[in-house]
């Protein structure tokens, strides 16, 4: 049995989340913070900066910026439960309105309640102050360490040099919490000013190895699951083909999504794009995108066609081509109302040409993330209008293509669906409901999407699946076991909460690649699958013709999802253990099942087949190892 080692975990934007010991994360949260004299605070966080992330052995290196301050943060494992953080700061420009830059530490309230004991010492070990998080009075004397003691955890922070410490009570969405402020630079910053501080963390505590009980309920099957799928938007001509071919040859891809380069299909309104294509004037990227759809279709994989951008004639204003807001603060461009009939014809011509010349039937069509404007922007009302009018136009042309409701940038903007949901005239033209899984993972939010699909009695599709929309900017994070485990954990959560018809990985190309080497992200070593690829392959090995089955886990660190077909006697249980190794008991297995095959993926194993688990009277017992993705399935 593999034993998980101690390892500090840090997000690619520089925030530590804790130290993992024997598979269990001993949590604490850090961030870099810039405080202005008016009290305004800017801090490092997901999608707030454009950081860079790399790893060298047991060191993780993050470079980022807050206003005019450049940070280089080096995080290193230094022993069991221990890590050292070095922060270098350089002011590119003077900042007279700054009151200071800080390294902040937030003990999680669930682990360190307000009654947790705090002890502050100086460099000689003399106690300067004691109390609780709620009652501590900090002296002005510079301190050298802080120690927190909670019922099940202890955390000691030692400073490389004495410094004054601040402790503040703050309030977030989940209520009040406490945060320590450790100064990096106090007062106004001067151009060229530099500083360097070092902090050492020691986290200890009890490891939860209590057994886990899993309860399966095959008597209440939910919605069908067609299987795992992928996005195949072509962006890297040199490195995409190898990842696409490897993925298609080595995993079952149940559904797919490809690009319609609309802006290149008909750049001029008075042009006949079909005639131009037949005359050999098809833009190379359009041809490659159509060939990509053809390649997938030949393998029997259904096609979702999505347009990211529109021709200049079809939108209001100058077309947005970037991935950010314009001068008005808005993303993308709305469609030009007077050109909608011409736009509908242009899109239908593309779909018809795909059918006629490449034998591709497009199942579903969408504008990518039009709720946000990447790069076509719509209101909910305009989205409903599009579904009604374009759907009707498709039907008038004899095309079976339906529209996606949503295809939103994340789950949070679910109100974008409301006008179409409330307008029954849109419903005949909707083929599925879709959102992207970059944000909005709360149960209540995800249930909104499940409810919409239930209302329409249509499939729910996760049109883009993964966890960090900016990860392309720091691709070294794709090789981290932490990222791999979080990504597959989310998929299990989506299966359990939403019961999607399919989840389409972003992407099964070199973009956000599940492969390494082969020139991808500058890595010229031989092409090879990563832990993420094996996670996806293991997930994609879910049998066909299954439905979501309820399953519960009585421990919070395990993400569980189950699927099955009672008529065929086919069952699969997916488990992601984000905690320590423990014994697991699975009950509720149908009496016809006598054995379950076991596959495990982690940092060291690639969908490794284990010893079959025996099932006796509907119960199976097995070891669930730390930091693993484990799948149990019938033959």
From TrEMBL:
InterPro entries: GH, Glyco_hydro_b. Keywords: Plasmid. This is Uncharacterized protein.
């Amino acid at each position: 049995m593999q034993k998980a080692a101690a390892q500090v975990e840090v997000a690619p934007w520089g925030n530590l989340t804790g130290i993992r010991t024997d598979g269990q994360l001993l949590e604490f949260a850090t961030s870099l913070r810039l405080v202005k004299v008016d009290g305004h605070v800017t801090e490092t966080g997901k999608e707030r900066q454009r950081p860079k992330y790399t790893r060298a052995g047991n060191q993780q290196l993050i470079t980022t910026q807050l206003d005019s301050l450049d940070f280089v943060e080096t995080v290193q494992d230094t022993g069991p439960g221990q890590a050292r953080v070095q922060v270098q700061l350089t002011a590119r420009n003077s900042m007279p309105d700054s009151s200071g830059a800080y390294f902040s530490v937030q003990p999680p309230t669930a682990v360190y309640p307000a009654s947790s004991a705090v002890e502050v010492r100086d460099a000689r070990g003399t106690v300067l102050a004691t109390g609780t998080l709620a009652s501590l009075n900090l002296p002005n004397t510079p301190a050298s360490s802080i120690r927190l003691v909670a019922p099940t955890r202890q955390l000691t922070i030692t400073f490389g040099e004495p410094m004054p410490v601040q402790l503040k009570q703050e309030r977030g969405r989940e209520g009040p919490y406490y945060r320590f402020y450790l100064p990096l630079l106090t007062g106004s910053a001067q151009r060229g000013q530099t500083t360097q501080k070092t902090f050492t963390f020691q986290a200890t505590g009890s490891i939860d190895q209590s057994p886990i009980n899993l309860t399966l309920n095959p008597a209440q099957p939910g919605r069908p699951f067609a299987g795992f799928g992928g996005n195949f938007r072509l962006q890297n001509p040199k490195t995409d083909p190898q990842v696409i071919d490897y993925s298609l040859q080595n995993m079952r891809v149940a559904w797919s999504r490809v690009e319609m380069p609309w802006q290149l299909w008909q750049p001029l309104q008075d042009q006949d794009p079909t005639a131009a294509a037949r005359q050999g004037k098809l833009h190379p990227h359009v041809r490659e995108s159509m060939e990509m759809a053809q390649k997938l279709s030949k393998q029997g994989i259904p096609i979702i066609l999505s347009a990211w951008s529109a021709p200049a004639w079809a939108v209001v204003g100058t077309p947005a081509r970037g991935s950010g807001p314009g001068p008005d603060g808005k993303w993308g461009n709305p469609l030009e109302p007077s050109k909608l009939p011409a736009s509908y014809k242009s899109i239908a011509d593309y779909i018809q040409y795909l059918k006629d010349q490449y034998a591709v039937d497009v199942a579903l069509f969408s504008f990518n993330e039009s709720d946000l404007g990447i790069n076509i922007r719509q209101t909910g009302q305009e989205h409903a209008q599009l579904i009604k009018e374009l759907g009707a136009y498709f039907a008038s042309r004899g095309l079976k293509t339906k529209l996606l409701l949503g295809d939103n940038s994340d789950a949070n903007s679910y109100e974008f669906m409301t006008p179409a949901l409330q307008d029954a005239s849109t419903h005949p033209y909707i083929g599925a409901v879709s959102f992207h899984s970059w944000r909005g993972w709360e149960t209540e939010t995800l249930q909104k999407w499940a409810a919409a699909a239930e209302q329409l009695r249509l499939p729910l599709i996760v049109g883009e699946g993964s966890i960090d929309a900016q990860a392309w900017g720091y691709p070294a994070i794709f090789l981290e076991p932490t990222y791999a485990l979080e990504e597959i954990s989310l998929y299990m959560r989506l299966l359990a909460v939403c019961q999607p018809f399919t989840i389409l990985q972003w992407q099964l190309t070199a973009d956000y690649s599940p492969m390494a080497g082969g020139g991808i992200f500058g890595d010229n070593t031989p092409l090879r699958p990563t832990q993420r690829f094996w996670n996806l392959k293991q997930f994609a090995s879910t049998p066909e013709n299954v439905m979501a089955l309820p399953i519960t886990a009585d421990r919070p660190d395990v993400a569980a999802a189950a699927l099955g077909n009672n008529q065929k006697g086919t069952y699969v249980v997916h488990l992601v253990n984000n905690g320590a190794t423990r014994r697991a008991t699975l009950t509720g297995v149908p009496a016809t099942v006598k054995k379950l095959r076991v596959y495990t993926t982690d940092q060291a194993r690639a969908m490794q087949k284990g010893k079959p688990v025996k099932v006796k009277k509907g119960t199976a017992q097995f070891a669930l190892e730390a930091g693993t993705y484990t799948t149990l399935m019938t033959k």
